[in-house]
UniProtKB/TrEMBL annotation, chain A:
GO terms for biological process: iron-sulfur cluster assembly. The keyword Iron applies. Keywords: Iron, Iron-sulfur, Metal-binding. Transmembrane segments: none annotated. SUPFAM superfamilies: SufE/NifU. Belongs to the NifU family. This is Iron-sulfur cluster assembly scaffold protein IscU.
TrEMBL record, chain B:
It catalyses: (sulfur carrier)-H + L-cysteine = (sulfur carrier)-SH + L-alanine. Pyridoxal 5'-phosphate binds at residues 95-96, 175, 203, 223-225, 264. InterPro entries: Aminotrans_V_dom, Aminotrans_V_PyrdxlP_BS, Cys_deSase_IscS, Cysteine_dSase, PyrdxlP-dep_Trfase, PyrdxlP-dep_Trfase_major, PyrdxlP-dep_Trfase_small. It comes from Tunturiibacter gelidiferens. Keywords: 2Fe-2S, Cytoplasm, Iron, Iron-sulfur, Metal-binding, Pyridoxal phosphate, Transferase. GO terms for molecular function: 2 iron, 2 sulfur cluster binding; cysteine desulfurase activity; metal ion binding; pyridoxal phosphate binding. Its cofactor is pyridoxal 5'-phosphate. Residues 27-391 form the Aminotransferase class V domain. Master enzyme that delivers sulfur to a number of partners involved in Fe-S cluster assembly, tRNA modification or cofactor biosynthesis. Catalyzes the removal of elemental sulfur atoms from cysteine to produce alanine. Functions as a sulfur delivery protein for Fe-S cluster synthesis onto IscU, an Fe-S scaffold assembly protein, as well as other S acceptor proteins. One of its GO terms (biological process) is [2Fe-2S] cluster assembly. This is Cysteine desulfurase IscS. It is an enzyme of class 2 (transferase). Its EC number is 2.8.1.7. The gene is iscS.
């Protein structure tokens, strides 16, 4: 099975690998997937409480090259976006950008889930109500 | 482990370090899937693609006689390797056909005596799917479990045999985890109970001593392309005496191979298979020792450099060239992607629609997560120490990098029990 150049690039040079302090109030952590399915993604964001802008994002992923690339790309995309803008990222955007084949679409779904889980965690910590746009997005 | 898993087809970025002496990329280390043809085998075959083209069944002219002579020589070469007589060798298109012919042919022939077949869960699909088909036709099949080391429990087999059992089919050595079953004991038990014993010996023949007499084998499948011979040719050994085994033919036609397998013989392929058997027999002792040393050396390197690695399958009853290793907390397909100048196989099946990892590894009781992290290294005749050094260094490097990326590895290092986490299965 051939990977696209972009997947290979993210695999060889993953962006934003690392760990943020998950106990910090401004940090949201999303841990999605399951080891027995062969994919676990952890995506973390640090949000500026004044502006709601995601100032930093980090990830670690256990999974195939497409899963690594999807989560690496997700951190690149959420950085600099507001929470609402980040919520608008969908798995189909990721599929398109990375040219994922049909068998790898679940990797992009997982990356979308990871973004939403990280934002959800941050909102919970900071008592931010789930907005209508968020509810409708799923 | 499907073959498409063994190469991800990615162009590797040029490594900055110069290649060590004696290493040519890509390195082939997937010799359980298939083996490269030995040049001596190819040389033996070539005339039979050209000048010596006769039909071995043509009885009335020299073209036929020459072909027949070549076929009979190959039959001798094969028989010698496994302690059989040449009349007990039937040529087929490969081990899948041999397994089908053996199991279906015996089931059909002995239907009046009974309808029960015993096999085990880590067999190749050529055996398992054949048995499943027979189940639909009214046969009863017992699939014995294996122990955590991959070996069957002889007590389980003893208990499974009943008065309707006609056939036991247990593989000699496993294609994924390399474990060698207690074949002689299984055969002895079958003979005591008057049950026919078939073994799929594709991975064992030519690699370790196989003797149908000492091992009490009645029917045995073997293949050319696993022993540095050509693809598309295999054989079935069918015992002629003590006891005489009969097989219902599954392909009808000209009555070739004593009626058991019609079809014009693949003379060049058969010549290649014969030569491959002869060479394997001559070189087995030194080659097995060499491969085992390389295998143990590679295993020791992994165990020294990395934590959370373990081997799969009993290492005391093991094919010399096989190493199946789990690099826990690293997903197998991502590991293969990082070593794409090396051909090995992964226990992960991430590209398949089911996302199911290897059924063989799962039968050992490995969790899906560990099965996803497993790599099969298949050393062969043409692998060198330099190959092994290159492969092990590269695997260690990529595993280390991927563990830096692995949230599971980080969590375990922090002392978190992964089994206590409520994972959202997807």
């Amino acid at each position: 099975m051939a990977y696209s150049d972009k997947v290979v690039d993210h695999y060889n040079h993953p962006r934003n690998v690392g760990t943020l302090d998950k106990s910090a109030a401004e940090v949201g952590t999303g841990l999605v997937g399951a080891p027995e399915c062969g994919d676990v993604m952890r995506l973390q964001i640090r949000v500026n409480p004044e502006t709601n802008v995601i100032e930093d994002a980090k990830f670690k992923t256990f999974g195939c090259g497409s899963a690594i690339a999807s989560s690496s790309l997700a951190t690149e995309w959420v950085k600099g976006k507001t929470i609402d803008e980040a919520m608008a990222i969908t798995n189909t955007d990721i599929v398109k950008e990375l040219a994922l084949p049909p068998v790898k679409i679940h990797c992009s779904v997982l990356a979308e889930d990871a973004i939403r889980a990280a934002i959800g965690d941050w909102k919970k910590k900071n008592n931010v109500a789930e907005t209508a746009t968020v509810a409708a997005a799923h | 482990m499907s073959n498409e898993m063994s190469n991800n087809g990615v162009v590797v970025s040029e490594s900055s370090a110069p290649l060590p002496a004696g290493v040519t990329l890509p390195i082939y280390m997937d010799n359980h899937a298939t083996t490269p043809i030995d040049p001596r085998v190819l040389d033996a075959m070539l005339p039979y693609f050209g000048k010596v083209f006769g039909n071995a069944a043509s009885r009335n002219h020299v073209f036929g006689w020459e072909a027949e002579q070549a076929v009979e020589k190959a039959r001798e070469q094969i028989a010698k390797l496994i302690g059989a007589t040449s009349k007990e060798i039937i040529f087929t298109s490969g081990a899948t056909e041999s397994n089908n012919l053996a199991i279906k042919g015996i089931a059909e022939m002995y239907r009046e005596r009974g309808n029960h077949i015993i096999t085990q869960v880590t067999e190749h699909k050529a055996v398992l799917d054949t048995c499943k088909k027979l189940e639909k036709q009214g046969y009863r099949v017992t699939y014995l479990p294996v122990q955590a080391d991959g070996l069957i429990d002889l007590e389980d087999l003893k208990r499974a045999i009943d008065d309707k059992t006609i056939l036991v089919s247990i593989m000699y050595a496993n294609n994924e985890i390399g474990v060698i079953q207690p074949i002689a004991e299984i055969g002895k038990l079958c003979h005591e109970k008057g049950v026919i014993f078939h073994t799929d010996a594709v991975q064992a023949v030519g690699k370790i001593p196989v003797d149908v007499q000492k091992d009490n084998i009645d029917v045995l499948s073997l293949s050319g392309h696993k022993i540095y011979g050509p693809k598309g040719v295999g054989a079935l050994y069918v015992r002629r005496r003590n006891p005489r085994v009969q097989i219902s033919e599954q392909i009808n036609g000209g009555g070739h191979e004593r009626g058991m397998r019609s079809g014009t013989l693949n003379v060049p392929g058969i010549v290649g298979l014969g030569m491959a058997c002869e060479i394997s027999g001559q070189e087995m002792e030194t080659e097995a020792k060499r491969e085992k040393e390389l295998r143990d050396y590679m295993k020791a390197k992994f165990e020294k450099a990395l934590d959370y690695v373990h081997v799969n399958g009993n290492m005391d009853h093991h094919l010399p060239g096989n190493l199946n290793m789990s690099f826990v907390y690293v997903e197998g397909e991502s590991l293969l992607m990082g070593i794409n100048d090396i051909a090995v196989s992964s226990g992960s099946a991430c590209t398949s629609a089911t996302l199911e990892p290897s059924y063989v590894l799962k039968a050992l009781g490995l969790g899906d997560d560990v099965a996803h992290s497993s790599i099969r290294f298949g050393l062969g005749r043409f692998n060198t120490k330099a190959d092994v050094d290159y492969v092990s260094d590269k695997v260690i490097d990529v595993v280390s990098k991927l563990r830096e990326l692995s949230p599971l590895y980080e969590m375990v290092k922090e002392g978190i029990d992964l089994s206590k986490i409520e994972w959202a299965a997807h």
